Amino acid sequence: MNEEIDIIELLKRVKEGKAPKWIEVGGNKYKYFGEGYPIEYLYMDNDGDGWLRLESVDVDTKIKILDKPIIEELNYSHGELTHFEVFAQQKINEIIHYINKGE
């Protein structure tokens, strides 16, 4: 399930350096091109058209986040850890796997 946010939250994330790499607005997908671009070209489609030139976005417009951060699983070596530590890390990895799947 993709997260949906509004324009204010999206711009806040861009400002904080946490901009999603891919978004969807009105059924169209756009890729983030980074700082240094005018706001209407922060996100562009495959043809290089700026998202705010193609979409009518207001405060109520829902923007889908198409990419999500992936939490890296713990790497462990059985020989260096106690049985309890191995068990705990396996359980943590199960939780991380569950979160990454988005269930």
Keywords:
103 residues, alpha+beta, 2 domains, five-stranded antiparallel sheet, elongated
Could you explain the architecture of this structure?
The protein has helices at residues 7-15, 51-54, 83-101; strands at residues 3-5, 22-25, 28-32, 43-44, 63-65. It has 103 residues and is of the alpha+beta class. It folds into 2 domains: 3-65, no CATH class; 70-103. Strands 1-5-2-3-4 form a 5-stranded antiparallel sheet. The model has no long low-confidence stretch (mean pLDDT 86). The N and C termini lie close together (8 Å). The protein has 3 helices and 5 strands.
Integer-rounded radius of gyration: 19 Å
User: What does the average pLDDT come to?
Assistant: 86
Class from secondary-structure proportions: alpha+beta
How helix-rich are the residues, as a percent range? Answer: 25-40%
Strand coverage percent: 15-25%
Low-pLDDT regions: none
The total domain count is 2
Question: Looking across the biggest beta sheet, what order are the strands in?
Answer: 1-5-2-3-4
> What characterizes the major β-sheet?
5 strands, antiparallel
